[in-house]
Amino acid sequence: MTRIIIQNTTVLTLDDDNTFYYPGTIEIRNDKIFSIGDWARDTILDEYDGETTIIDGTDKLVMPGLVDLHFHTSVAKGYGDNLPLWEFLDRIWYPSIRALTPETCLTAALHSYITALKSGTTTVNDMYRHLDSLASAALQTGIRAVISNNIALPEHMLDSVDDNVQAFKRNNNKGNGRIKVWLGLEWMPLSDEPLLAEIGRVKKELGTGVHIHLCESRTEIADSMKRFGKRPVEMVYEAGILGPDCVAAHCVHLSDNEIRLLGETGTSFSHNAGSNAKLGNGVARVQDMLKAGINIGLGVDACECHNSTDMFEEMKITSYMQRATMEDASLGQPSQILRMGTSNGAKALGIDAGMLVAGKKADVILLDLKKDMMFTPLLKEPKEERRRMLESHLVFGCNGSGVDTVIVDGRIVMEGRKVLGVDEENVRQEMDLLFRNLIDSIPKVTVEREK
User: Fold this and answer.
1) DSSP string spanning 124-162?
2) Of the four, 82, 317, 361, 411, which is 20 to 30 A from 355 by CA?
3) Domain residue spans in the chain?
């Protein structure tokens, strides 16, 4: 049995009552939060039959770990940034992931999970390839991961339903349940009706979830209408894919009926504002989806599409884009955005985490409130104003470099900004070598698109 106690700290619980402690203390036993409360210098620790680690939380903020609801392991960040979505997929993304081996995929996943942890992400919903390698990387780094394949029709040379089923049998519930395997559907242009029906059937047989791209671009919708006479959400609804066990990513161009279908089925939506903006795909109808009662989480997508795994950046972009598009500064308030990045994502993935409440999974991060003056100025009292200022700084004023310590499933996996389970420098060097070797298999891209 293990125990971690963080004392004399600021505790932002993000629970339903906005409970806030300053100074506060949080106790973790094994994989769960045991208690949270006020702290005083004369606080006496209970006797405990096991190992205890005490963390001085002075000038630190303790909050729930971030949940990246739409994530892809990355190999080609910064390459082909000038291309729009469909051209980027054909010329960069698909050639690069087809060229991966289990060994190179492990390196890429280690690198991607390290960067996620270093910016405070404790859970990734990763759709990629070679799931044995993803599971191994998650075990080594300590991150919580929901992993899925890139299922597509055979002619696209990605993954099959059977690939995903076999990966499920080998890897689901590894790491004390920290690793879950879902089915991953690449997107509608690489699918057909029989494939959708098979995914809907297998989802029920396995009792697992589905991670899918939906309505990311106008060209995707046009392709669906041309081939099937129906919009993408209508197609997956009829195949039995939507539901509380489904995460639909992007959803930029939804019709009113598609919003209704997502809401009525309890499907969660991963909003990827940074990726959508960078690839020129538009701004999702977030306010309409909120009105429909849809659970909305946040995701960075792939580093090829966003160039960063930093969910703090994603939260800022999410709020800014809504305010700018709707011309309304009352939208995207920090308290709401923070929950999109934590508890909403956990709910979508069926993880009992996302807020600091006794009995919840201990996925916790500590931020350094003195880091580069990102949290300055900051009132000490009244406590309610300190909480509001912290929420504002977290969404609008800081980035992931402020994260000092990461705890996942009750284990310290990053301390002093060092991920403990891996050699970060070795992974960095291997990642550079991987890309240099991989680049020969990717068609050359021009620096500027033709006018």
Assistant:
1) EEEE-S-HHHHHHHHHHH--EEEEE--B--GGG-SB-HH
2) 317
3) 2-64+355-419, 66-349
Neighbouring CB atoms inside 10 A of 433's CB total 12
Helix axes 102-118, 424-438, angle to 10 degrees: 130
Determine the average pLDDT of the residues in 295-306.
94
- What pTM value is reported for the model? 0.96
pLDDT in tens, 242-266: 999 999 999 999 999 999 999 999 9
| The predicted structure's pLDDT at residue 447 | 37
* Residue with tokens 């070598």, as numbered in its chain: 433
- Let me know: does 80 contact 432? Beta carbons within 8 Å: no
Strand ranges, E, within 32-142: 32-38, 51-56, 60-64, 66-72, 121-127
Radius of gyration over every alpha carbon of the chain, rounded to an integer in angstroms: 21
Q: What is the helix (H) or strand (E) element at residue 220, kind and residue range?
A: helix 218-228
User: What is the Cα–Cα distance from 55 to 118, expressed in whole angstroms?
Assistant: 18
Residues 200/241, Cβ–Cβ less than 8 Å: yes
Q: Name which of 159, 184, 180 is nearest 170 in CA terms.
A: 180
User: For the CA atoms of 5, 11, 16, 19, what is the dihedral angle to 10 degrees?
Assistant: 110
Under CATH, to which class is 66-349 assigned? Answer: alpha beta
Q: What angle do CA 120, 29, 52 make, to 5 degrees?
A: 95
Q: What is the DSSP letter of 29?
A: E
How far apart CA 204 and CA 245 sit, in angstroms, is: 10
Amino acid at 137: A
